[in-house]
Design goal:
The complex is a heterodimer of chains A (572) and B (168). Chain A has 572 residues and is α/β, with parallel strands linked by helices. Chain A is built from 22 helices and 22 strands. The radius of gyration of chain A is 24 Å and the shape is globular. Chain B folds into two domains: 78 residues, 2-Layer Sandwich (Alpha-Beta Plaits); 68 residues, Alpha-Beta Plaits, CATH 3.30.70.1150. Classes of the chains: A alpha/beta (572), B alpha+beta (168).
Chain lengths: 572, 168
């Protein structure tokens, strides 16, 4: 039987196991929307296409599955670009379907026509313009395959209106044939052996883990290896959750995991940055030596032999020259290292490692992350700590970008992968709320909290109504300091305190705004109100916006000024 | 490599790509987006259906060349990257050179063409158009000689390159 392109589209999505599409209709995709009611796939109507892209992204990060969004041609498509670039920078599997004007009109500057394939070429893993209905099934199959395999990423498929209307026999290809795409998944054993010999002899090893550990599902292997070789672990922003920050002792008392260093880099902990700077072997796993991590490249881990495991060869020796490159899936490489570590245990390992572990403990005690909650004004860090305490760490946290993001990374202890969803690479303000909605869609019964700033939250505030309409009880905690705080902090430290364009005195009343959207609005202005506001918010099964009026000029510390070595931190 | 790692050098890379719309733009976009240089680029179909071969010349230090090769390999439509740092290769380029050819210089123009085994492909009352094939050095040499007679315009194809002996 012949099917229309639009029908084939939904057959393909069914084959791919898609449960939900985040989207917004328009002229070029009405044919697809016409099929939505006949399909089992749920459609979430957003209020801005950027929201759709971030929701698909949040859904993907929370579940590990491919997130899907669907938008129309022209402005619908361009509105997703920030969301696509966000996913691309953080290697998030997503497929974006855009409508396109009929093939006969392409290139004519038709109404709502834009060359979205050209626009998104540099920010997608791959993209397609489908010009023949006979290619629809193959392209969709390839798009999902590319999005989730190798180094994951967003793939865009542009579908002209006449292709969706044309008919053909539907056959879903069994296999993809992409002769130019063969990601190396198995790590080279010889390289692993060389790496292991280095690790064996190391006195001050550090494992530096990134988002790749999470996307390859290698967190258990990472924990196992770290314990076997007694190496402390630091993580990038993207890697938080891949190694448990806390552990319980025999009496059930919770404390920081002694092997956990916290996040490293510009706003990393003192002990993480010092440990990396003094390490003799640095094992980088699924991380990409981002400039926010390395600071001045020549001063990054200056004494260390560097081993780098990554599925993407372009990440290796891109920013920092490495001694032992290992191309492959993190899970496979770590398992091979574990096998070797078990076969050849180091005698007297604890004794050998004692001075290093002790040094790290000293660093931790000298400069722990700290702030003072005193007086009548709420400190933003206090709110993050309270959120952690009140949910006992059992929540999916999303953030916006800026100070709110860094305080979350510092003061919320992440023990499990896929519990922190944040725009690491692109640093997209406005990411947190739609990402939270995407995550809540995947896990309706979990507590999902967007830790936001008063600036960022306004960049996609329109999506509150999406949460309300779909009964998605996301919680938004705004750390409201009336500033674009991170930029203000830079102006204070490096730009002679000229606070140009960073003061947000005129913001909406977030409580009334929440109510206007049909959500619940709560406010805390004093430290003693923080707990009760959180308790109330967590008990309500509806979207809640919490306005925490916090200290206006609090900064994020430690801070490594741009271009400095990461051991040169401003501590207060 | 014997060369200093930071030394900039000219480098030829062969790229086998799927013959699809947009592929050239992906390759060109990769270079411009990452701040790499393209000095010249040729593309044409090969004997295998659906496959085209690009030959491109770029400059950069070892580190940049390494990145270029890796980034090219990462493109989905790229089937194979032939890094000519690792292999012996032959390369040729064709140039069309239009030179002034007045009564007193015609003989000289012909003589130069002869020496370089070039051909006169068009003759008009005041000009010759000469077709010459060779590597960089040969083309540079013939151009230098014709310069003295007066070159009016030049069109060059950019180089095509293949590895010696075995198939790459």
């Amino acid at each position: 039987m012949k099917l229309k392109g639009a029908q084939i589209f939904f057959e393909c999505l069914k084959k791919e196991g898609v449960e939900v599409i985040f989207g917004f209709p328009g002229g070029a995709v009405i044919d697809l929307y016409h099929e939505v009611p006949k399909s089992d796939i749920k459609h979430i109507l957003v209020r801005h296409e950027q929201g759709a892209a971030h929701m698909a992204d949040g859904y993907a990060r929370a579940t590990g599955r491919v997130g899907v969004c669907l938008v129309t041609s022209g402005p619908g498509a361009t509105n997703t670009v920030t969301g696509i670039a966000t996913a691309y920078m953080d290697s998030i599997p997503m497929v974006i379907f855009t409508g396109q004007v009929p093939t006969a009109l392409i290139g004519n500057d038709a109404f709502q026509e834009v060359d979205i394939v050209g626009i998104t070429r540099p920010c997608t893993k791959h993209n397609y313009l489908v010009k023949d209905v006979n290619d629809v099934a193959r392209v969709i199959k390839e798009a999902f395959y590319l999005a989730r395999t190798g180094r994951p990423g967003p793939v865009l498929v542009d579908l002209p209106k006449d292709v969706l209307q044309a008919q053909t026999e539907f056959r879903y290809p069994r296999k993809v044939e992409l002769p130019g795409y063969r990601p190396t998944l198995e790590a080279h054993v010889g390289q692993i052996k060389r790496a292991f010999q280095l690790i064996r002899k190391a006195r001050n090893p550090v494992i530096y883990a990134g988002g790749g550990v999470i996307s390859s599902g290698a967190h258990e292997e990472l924990i196992r290896l770290a314990e076997l070789i007694q190496a402390p672990v630091t993580a990038t922003l993207m890697g938080l959750g891949c190694f448990p920050a806390t552990q319980k002792d025999a009496d059930g008392k919770e404390d920081l995991n002694p092997l956990w260093l916290g996040m490293l880099g510009m706003h990393g902990t003192f002990r993480a940055n010092m440990a990396v700077s003094h390490s003799d072997v640095l094992l980088a796993v699924g991380a990409r030596f981002d400039d926010r991590v390395t600071g001045k490249v020549s001063g990054f881990a200056p004494k260390a032999k560097i081993i780098h495991i990554d599925v993407d060869p372009t990440s290796i020796s891109k920013n920092v020259e490495v001694d032992i490159p290992i191309v492959g899936d993190c899970k496979d490489a770590l398992q091979k290292l574990i096998d070797m570590a078990q076969a050849e245990p180091v005698e007297g390992l604890e004794e050998l490692r004692f001075p290093w572990v002790d040094q790290i403990r000293k660093w931790r005690e000298t400069y722990p992350l700290a702030y003072k909650q005193e007086g009548d004004v709420i400190k933003p860090q206090f709110v993050v700590e309270k959120i952690y305490e009140m949910c006992k760490g059992d929540a999916i946290i999303t953030t916006e970008v800026g100070q709110n993001q860094m305080w979350t990374a510092q003061y919320f202890h992440f023990d499990h992968p896929r519990t922190l969803l944040t725009s690491g690479g692109l640093g997209t303000m406005g990411y947190g709320l739609p990402a939270a909605i995407g995550a809540q869609m995947a896990y309706p019964d979990r507590l999902v909290i967007d830790i936001a700033g008063d600036g960022s939250i306004q960049m996609n505030i329109q999506e509150v109504i999406t949460a309300v309409c779909n009964n998605l009880p996301v919680k938004v905690a705004i750390l409201n300091n009336k500033y674009l705080g991170m930029v203000r902090q830079w102006q204070e430290l490096f730009y002679e305190k000229v606070y140009c364009a960073t003061c947000l005195e005129a913001s909406p009343d977030f409580v009334k705004l929440a109510e206007a959207y049909g959500a619940v609005g709560l406010r805390a202005t004093k430290p003693e109100e923080v707990e009760s506001v959180l308790r109330e918010a967590f008990s309500i099964k509806r979207p809640v916006i919490m306005d925490f009026v916090v200290a206006e000029e609090e900064g994020v510390y430690p801070m490594v000024p741009a271009g400095k070595n990461i051991s040169e931190m401003l501590l207060v | 490599m014997e060369n200093d790692n930071n030394e900039k050098q000219k480098h030829t890379i062969g790229v086998l790509v799927e013959n699809q719309p947009g592929v050239l733009s992906r390759v060109a976009g990769l270079f411009s987006g990452r701040g790499f240089n393209i000095e010249c680029l040729t593309v044409a179909e090969t004997n295998e259906p659906g496959l085209s071969r690009m030959t491109l010349v770029t400059t950069g230090d070892q580190h940049i060349l390494e990145q270029i090769v890796k980034q090219l390999n990462k493109l989905i439509n790229v089937i194979k990257v032939i890094d000519f740092r690792e292999t012996e290769f032959v390369d040729r380029e064709m140039a069309l050179i239009k030179v002034r050819a007045e009564a007193q210089t015609r003989a000289e123009a012909l003589r130069i063409a002869d020496i370089f085994r070039a051909k006169i492909v068009d003759v008009s009352p005041h000009f010759y158009t000469i077709e010459v094939t060779g590597n960089d050095t040969k083309i540079a040499a013939i151009m230098e000689l014709y310069e003295q007679l007066g070159i009016v315009e030049v069109a060059r194809t950019g180089k095509a390159a293949l590895a010696r002996s075995k198939k790459h």
